[in-house]
Every structure is written in C-alpha cells, then in structure tokens.
Amino acid sequence: MKEIRHPGIPVVYDLEEDENFCYLIEQFLEGDSLYALVSDIGHFSKAMTIRYGIQICRLVNILHSVKPTPILYLDLQPKNLLVCDDTVKLVDFDHAIPLDEAEYLTKRYGTVGCAAPEQYTGAILNERTDIYAIGAVLYYMLTGEFPEKNPVYPKERMDRHLKKVIRTCLQEDPGKRYRSADQLGRELESIQKQMENKGVFRKIPESSLTIAIAGAFPGAGTTHMAIGFAACLWRQGLSVVYEEKNGSDAVRQMAGCAGCTMDRYGIYRIHGLPMFPLYGDTVKLESHPYKVRIQDYGTLCERFRQETADGYLLVCGSKPWQWKKAREAVQFSGNPPEMAIIYNQFCGQLTDKLPGPAKEAECFLMPHFPNPFTCAREAQRVYNEILLSITGKETGGILRILSKKAERVLFTGRF
After folding, report:
1. 1.10.510.10, 3.40.50.300, 1.10.760.10, 3.90.170.10: CATH of 2-198
2. Rounded to an integer, what distance in angstroms lies between the CA atom of residue 40 and that of residue 261?
3. CATH topology identical between 2-198 and 209-402
4. Prediction pTM value
5. Concatenated DSSP letters for 204-246?
6. What is the average per-residue pLDDT within 202-208?
C-alpha cells in the first residue's frame, strides 16, 4: 500500500484492487463511501456538499501537482471517496496514470455518469478530465443522482453560484472547465465563506460546543429531539456527534438494526450520523475529533442539571395531559439559568395555554416529524433558531412563522 502525504491535507491511500474492494477499504479505513452515505440519506445539504467538495479538490490537486509529471486519477466517483471522521479520503488508484502517458492509452476506463466525454471519444485527457468528474460528484451529493447529458439543477438544493460551479465543471468542451482543481476548490471556498457570513452558523464559535438535552418525563421525545438536532447540524456541515448519556442503549440497538460497526473512537455512523453510545467508566477510548456534542440525558434531569454545557434544552410535551409534569419540570428552582424549553409536537390551538417557566426563558414549539435523521424543513428551522439562541443571537422569528399566536412564548402558567 502506498501513502501520499501533504502538509495540512487529508491522506490519500492506494489499495490493491480486490473482488470485495469496497467492503475491504471501508473496514480498513473505518469509513463510509460517499455512495453509501448518499444511498442511505438521499442527498447531502449544500453545506455538506461544499465541505466535502473542497476536500476532494485538495486531494485531486495533490495528484495534479506531483513533480515532474502530474498524475491523472481518471475514475473519480462516489464509491472511491470515503468519509472517515468527517475527512474525505481517496482510494483505488487502479486507473491513475502519469499525464505524459495519457495520449498512449489503448484502453480507457471510467464510471458512467462521472467519466468526462473525452474518455468515450478518444480525445486528449488532461487535468480537466478529473475536473469534470469532480463536478459530477458534486451534483451526485446534492441530488442523489448522476448528471445526464443536459442535467437539471434543482433550485431548492443549489443557488446560482453553486449551479454555475457545477455547470462549469460539466462543460463538454474541456477548455471551458476550470483550469485546475485548485481553482475549483477556491471557488467552493468562496461560496462557503459567503454562507458563513450570512448563514445560520455565522455566530457559532470555532471551538467546541456542548448542548445538553433532557426530558421532563418519560415519553417526552428527548432522544428523538436530540438525534434530530444532531442530524440537522450534521447535514448542514458541522462537525457534530450525538452522545448517549442515558441507559436506553438506543445507539447500539439502532446500530444492530443498521448493521453498523464502531470505529476506533467507539462511534457508530448510523445513516451517516456519528453516534456515541453510553460506555461504562472502565472503558477507555481515544478522544473523538467532533467539535459539537449533542448530549442526550433522557429523563436523568439531575445529571443534566449538573453537566457543564454551553446550552441546556428541556423537552416537554405540549398535550393537556402532559401540562402538569411539564410545569413541575420547567419551574424547578434548580434548573440551569440559561435553560431553554422545547414543547414537542405542539398544537397551534393550545399555544397560548401551554404551561411556562417561573421566569423568562426561551421557549420553542417543535412540530411533529417522524424521522429524526431526515427531519422536515419546519423542524430544521426550529433547530437552527435554537442553535442561534445558544450561540448568542436574538430569536423569535421562527415562533411567529409556526404559530400566529406565538410571539416570544413567555407564558404565565395559567390554563
């Protein structure tokens, strides 16, 4: 096995081909291929696509910068790109060749949907052949499909800037594509910077962030809320992990159903989301690299209150038969001073009657969404609002959108 290293750039691996290649490399590198991840969750968000796209450009640029002769990869496709601990790694160099040998190729290979037009026609191959494949992979991550000859660019998944980038990569004429992977990567970095400046994450610190979540009573939906929060942030490109802090054993049960295995950090990637189960005190594991931690305490409110975290969320039910327990939990004097409240599966007609805290606190109304790994757009907007609240930005807009009766939801406690 060869290994190419470059300062500050992910490792590039070269493994021998095998009949069970994809299985072997995923076991060896403890990651999932982009193909497996997209097949599992449907498609990536714009933020995730750009984040991984930048890493792919850096990897390809390493090959194209080799001296004295650049290396062409010539088979860039989702199955040859692994995501290991949120880092993209490139595998299977079976079709890679030095640039000065490209014109002498008697046989050409490639993956349908990712291979550039010149790989079919016998025209000259160069660095821009790999640029086409990067564009095809970007399109695949955003849509879950490979681009056709005249691809459709869904407006809800890509803005005009990202559309222009992908369209430039997929030009039939190589001369109209980006000159280099470095140029393409810088274009993606520019889009990422624009998103950070005006997007929901512009207030998030680059250092670690811990958010503790607990439920007011059994059945409030704490684990559902915590998984949904982590999945929402992960799909938008944050380095996030769900941490199980209760004894439900939910992570291992889900991992068993999904056939997932743990990595060296003890983490399972379930539907792409890094999930850390509860381990005993005697288990010693390497510290994981994820910066944002969503901690699920279940109904262990006492432990939740003692945790040192950047944000605290208490999940309550919004139905009338849950109001008594909800009031007792939210008005408890020992709650963290900055604790926010989530009323789960709220009913719009009862918004102004929900029991509230004894003092002013942020309250959020969470609509019902059946799948926490791919929560609905309305739920994502609430999660974004919660995150902005924790990181210091004014909130309130989402509440007005979700319910005309809700302004800041500062309730009196009277029915």
Report:
1. 1.10.510.10
2. 16
3. no
4. 0.69
5. --SS-EEEEEEESSTTS-HHHHHHHHHHHHHHTT--EEEEE-S
6. 57
